[in-house]
Each structure stands twice: as structure tokens, then as C-alpha cells.
Amino acid sequence: MQIFDGHNDALSRLWGTTTDPVGEFAKPVGHVNTPHARAGGLSGGFFALYSSVEKRAFDFTIFDGGGVALPLAPAMPAAQALEPVIAQAGIAQQLHAAGQIEICTSTAQLGRAFVSDPIACVLHLEGADCIGPEMWELDALHAMGLRSLGPVWSRPNIFGEGVPFSHGTDGDTGGGLTSAGQALVAKCKAMGVMVDTSHLTLRGFWDVAEEDLPLVATHSNACAVALNARNLTDDQLRAIGQTGGMVGLNFASLYLSDDGWAQGQATLTDCLRQLDHLIAVAGEDHVGLGSDFDGAPMPQGMSHAGNLPALLDAMRAAGYGEALIAKLAHENWLDFLSRQLNP
Hints:
Elements: E1 3-8, H1 10-17, H2 21-25, H3 34-40, E2 42-50, H4 78-97, E3 101-103, H5 107-114, E4 119-126, H6 136-143, E5 146-150, H7 179-191, E6 194-195, H8 202-209, E7 216-217, H9 234-242, E8 246-249, H10 253-256, H11 258-263, H12 268-282, E9 287-289, H13 308-317, H14 322-340
Parallel strand pairs: 1-2, 2-4, 3-4, 4-5, 5-6, 7-8, 8-9
Helix pairs in contact: 1-4, 12-13
């Protein structure tokens, strides 16, 4: 069973840890790489560009004893935010040239890449901190293949405010989109760039809904199962289904369950509990996977992309039929993207 994944941070990991990304991506290092992808059936996904403050890999060990409630990170100057994003986009170009991924900007290209050896890559910007008010940087990134954008990460910028990392609350933690944020969403709509609401506040989510776009949360779970600022309320999940959008199951232990937050550990059973609720509320045609590989601590049994078949086997054991599993594994994302990308 092939997999299309809604979110990974492999480009950030490579930028922070190596001067030879092509050689490193060919090794079984990190969550997403060529050997693990082949072993696990990972044939495509959103590859995030992220403005990290420090040039290093994410340290997941800080969550070994459980989640740590953190306030919003401070705003990041656009010039500082641009350097890692451009560098990571350059890494994506190197991986593309080496035949390890294929940066896809059209439905036809995505369809071909998904059934061939390179991993089909949809470039995504996780937080528009690097974009200034004139939004020229968006034009440049679009020319480099960017086709998906989240206006914020979990920090404020000129476009809006993200949610803090906190448990026991939904995403109603701050303001919505600014006027610049509304302009950014409108420009994305005109350019055919998908808008991702992951990390946005509740108010920001509904502001995106006002722009008459399909609502997408590439890597988010359900508050009804684990009440966390990074998760979605049932009203949000219903809106995703009603607008023809998508929600991708986030594998991050911290957002899967209350115990996952409290102890820093979760299981594939917790993934299934989340999936059951996402399907029940958003609808089975609007749910996929959004792992957060290389960006978060993973549940037991999911050390890297090579373990993806274990999740599919857990679905089968729980009574999911093969047609539903195929939808969740790749069909729903590919069907959605066929309506978003140019032919």
C-alpha cells in the first residue's frame, strides 16, 4: 500500500545536520529518507520549509517525560527567517536533481512521480515568517516549486498568530489573521497555493474559511480525543469536510492522547482513536495522514517512515476495510491535490 503523507520536516533536518544532503538522504538516518521511504511505501508527501532559529536537528528528548507547555515563540525578523527557507528549498532542488525526490507542481507530474522511484514532493512553507508585506518572496518561492503554505507556525508574524504548545485548551488562544494575512490568503488563492491552517488559532482558521477556500489542516488531530491547542474542534473538522478539504493525522505523541502529552509516549492504538474521530466528524473522504516525521516525537511502533505498514496493519486489525485504508493512505490526498494543482 503506497502512502502520501501530509507533512514532514526532512528538509529542516538535512539543513540542520549535514553539508551533504544528497548523501545523507540516501542513508537510514532520521524519520524520512530514501531507504525508509522504500521500506514503508512512502511514495509522496508535503515537504516543509521551516524557519528554524538554530541550525540543528530538532531535539525530541526534551519531551521524554511529557509535553512542556510553552508560550508563543517570539516573532522572527523576515530576513532571518528567509535564509533557512531558501537553503532548504535549495536542498530540495539538490534532492530533485539527484532523483531522490521529484518536486511536483502539476497533477500530471504528481501522478507520474507517485508511481515511480523518486518520492513525489509538494513543497510547503510552514509559517510565512520569511515573507514581507509586499509578498515578493512568495513569488520567488512559487517559482521554486512552492504549492502549499501555512500563514503561521506557533509564533506571531505580520500575517497572524499561531497557537502555543499547551494542553487542556483548544486553539482559541489569540487573534486571527491580520489584514496582511487576509491579503496573503487571497494571493495564495489566486496563485493556486494551498493554505494550511495547522498552527493557526481558532480565529485564524475561521478567517481562512471566509476566503471561500477548501479548509486544510495537513498535520492536526481532534480536540475531542486530546484537548490540545494544536488540535481541532469538531466544528473545525465538520467545516473541513463541508468545504471539501483535508485533515492529516499527526503522529506526534504529544497530540494523540492525554497520556501522550503527560508522559511523552503514545501508541498506534492512540492513532486509531484519533482516526476514528476524524473520520466520524470530517468524513472518510477528507482524512489522510500527516505524520510530522522529523518534526516531532513518534508513537511506539513508528520510529520512522519504514514503519508505516505497522499503522496500516493496525487499521486492518481494527476492522478498517481495504478501500478505506487506501483512501486514508493516499487516495484522499491525491484526489484533493488533483483539484488544487494545475493539470
